Every structure is written in structure tokens, then in C-alpha cells.
Amino acid sequence: MSESTRLEITAAEHAGRRARLAQRLQDEGLDAICVFGPVRVAYLTGFHFAATERPVGVVLSDTGEVTTLLPALEETHFAQQCPDLPAPLTYPEYPGGGTGRHPLSVLADHLRARFPAARRIAADHDGYENRWGYRGPALSALLGQPVHPGLELIDDLRMVKSAAEIELIREACRWGDHAHRVMQNSIAPGANELLVSHGASLQATRDMLAALGERYVPKSREGLPANAMFISGANTAHPHGLHQSVGVMAGDVLVTGAYGTVGGYESELERTMHVGDPTPEFERYFAAMLGAQNAGLAALRPGRTCAQVEADVRAFIEDQLGMTALVRHHTGHAFGLEGHEHPFLDLDDHTPVEPGMIFSIEPGLYVPGLAGFRHSDTVLVTETGSELLSVYPRELADLIIPA
């Protein structure tokens, strides 16, 4: 099996990302950048790992030289995933493994030795992120000099997806759609939210692995490649309502979520459904929600800003529906390696919309005591407009569960 058949980003594309970031360092007059965010490490190197209390980081110089900081337990794992990169800088354990040295001091010593005359070093965080009990000094304190904010230098590169990224997300959409179909076919009165959600996710994952075979390359220790879930009843009036251990009943509104993960990249699909014959009240709010989503789809195109897209949706909800009081969140967000990424379709985000960006379009209406109404789709910005990558039915007739 050649590398080109594997559903993952190639080493050559990762090298291109580092080259673009190195050029940005030169443009900004920066000597190097330290990267601690696990997703950003993976974006730049292809090293996917379980993020724990043990610091992992990447140092990239303005000339493109790369050094990776790892706990010793990850050394062979790194060599397996990134054979094209130099051997890493390692430390024995956190908080020191008996050495008396904090892992971040190992990195600081390397920076002082490698960049003795460095005037400007940037980082996505001023030290490793606090997770799983980690405690540590700021990188700036160890270096005795300010660390310049560098998060945007990387995340701005992530906004516009490459052709390879788009194809991975397109494939993830196919399996998110499939997981949702498996789940919808499994829902009936009396069904338990948790059992149906997990059962459908497992079945869809079996189908996905059978279809893709060795082309599928897992990038995580947790979660399934294909996932679907739903919440029901008045609980859906909470935009992020938790599961309830209750059975589905006739007359319930369901709000669903489904996604695939391929090559580390995610999709997003959400639907509003109804168990049994819908009431006129439900139909009215459903039509309003669908109209708002259509307004968002029509508004998303190059040459506009994220704020302008949101303004169009808000104007539709206010002027056409008179339902502004039912809005609880903005219209959508970008995503890729993470479920939520910069930028956001929000009135205060003035990022220009560009071809190759991928957004969710998910304006919601939330009626207290009744239900929430929200569809979400994965949408690719094209040269002239947008393209739906998730193609699951959106019309009410296709989203009714027989009672």
C-alpha cells in the first residue's frame, strides 16, 4: 500500500507548513517559536499523541530548523510517526523523575544554547498548558526575557484548508452522515439516548473500518472514528444539554449530532427531529430555523467578513421571524483538527472569508420549556460561494421518527 492511499496528511505537507511558518517568523523579525498546543504540534509535525501532564513542544527557527521536546516514553512513538524529523530532545519524566530538573528547564537550556543571541522568541503559550495536574514555570521566566505571543502565527495558517485537508474532511462527512443514518434508523419510542447513541456510533465505526480498511489511520487513543448522539424533549432547549437516562416518547423533539474523524480531521452534522406527527407549533419553529440556516448558507462567500455573515443571519431572524429573543449563540465556527477553530461567524469577528475555509452553519432557536431547533452542516467556502460537504437531508419530512 503506497503512502498516497493512506487517509492522512503527508510528511511533505507538514514540511510545507513548517516552511510557511518559518517565513512568517522572518517577516515578523522573530528568531524562533515554541509550540506547546498538542493540535498545533500535530499540525506542524504529524506527531499525534495523548496529551498528559508531560510537556511536549516543538521549537521552529526562522530558518526552518525543528527541535521536538518529548518525555522519553514518547521517543519511539515519535520516531514511528515522524521518521523525517531529527531525533527529539528528551527528558526522563515529569516533574523530574529524580533528576531535580523540571522538563521545561531542559527546553530553556536548549533555547539558550541554540539561540544565544536571540532577541525575540515567540510561543503559542508562555509555557506548557496546564492539564492533568501539570504545574510549571513560565517559559519567559526561565529565559529571563519576554516571550512574544505567537498563537496567531500558526492558527492563521490553519484557517484555509489545503486540498488534502478538504478531502479528509469530505471523507469524514461521509461517515458522519452514515453514523447519523444508523442512529436515526435505531430511534423508536422507549429508546434510551445513551444506548442508541453509543450503539449507532459503534456500528457506524464497524462499517467505516470495513470500507476503508488499512487506508484508515487512527490519530487518537480515544473516541471512535464515527460518532452520533442525540438529546430529547425540553432538554434540547439547552444548546449543550447533557444526556438524560430516559426513554424517547412520542411528541419529543430530538436534537442530534454526528461526525466522522479521518486523518485527525473532523466533520459536523446536527439535525432537529420529531418523534411522531409534529404539531403546528413545532412546524413553525422548524421552518424558522431552516430559514435562518438557509440565510447563513447564502451569506457565506468570499469577499465578505465573518461578521457580515452573522449580521445577515441576525437580520433574517429579527426582520423576517421576529425571534431574536430565541437566539443563544452565533451562527457558526471554523473547524478541522479541532471541533471549534478560529475564525467564528460572530458579529465581533471581522476575519475575511476566503476560499478553502470550512465552517459550520448552525443558527439555533431555543424555546424555553419546549425545545431547541438547530441544524448544523459542514460547509466549504468556494471561489464563488459555498458547498455543503455534509449532505444529510434537512427537510422535516425526512426527519420524523415513526411513533
From TrEMBL:
<dbReference type="InterPro" id="IPR000587">
    <property type="entry name" value="Creatinase_N"/>
</dbReference>
<dbReference type="InterPro" id="IPR050659">
    <property type="entry name" value="Peptidase_M24B"/>
</dbReference>
<keyword id="KW-0031">Aminopeptidase</keyword>
<keyword id="KW-0645">Protease</keyword>
<protein>
    <submittedName>
        <fullName>Xaa-Pro aminopeptidase</fullName>
    </submittedName>
</protein>
<dbReference type="Pfam" id="PF00557">
    <property type="entry name" value="Peptidase_M24"/>
</dbReference>
<feature type="domain" description="Peptidase M24">
    <location>
        <begin position="167"/>
        <end position="383"/>
    </location>
</feature>
<dbReference type="InterPro" id="IPR000994">
    <property type="entry name" value="Pept_M24"/>
</dbReference>
<dbReference type="GO" id="GO:0004177">
    <property type="term" value="F:aminopeptidase activity"/>
</dbReference>
<keyword id="KW-0378">Hydrolase</keyword>
<dbReference type="InterPro" id="IPR029149">
    <property type="entry name" value="Creatin/AminoP/Spt16_N"/>
</dbReference>
<dbReference type="Pfam" id="PF01321">
    <property type="entry name" value="Creatinase_N"/>
</dbReference>
<dbReference type="InterPro" id="IPR036005">
    <property type="entry name" value="Creatinase/aminopeptidase-like"/>
</dbReference>
<feature type="domain" description="Creatinase N-terminal">
    <location>
        <begin position="17"/>
        <end position="160"/>
    </location>
</feature>
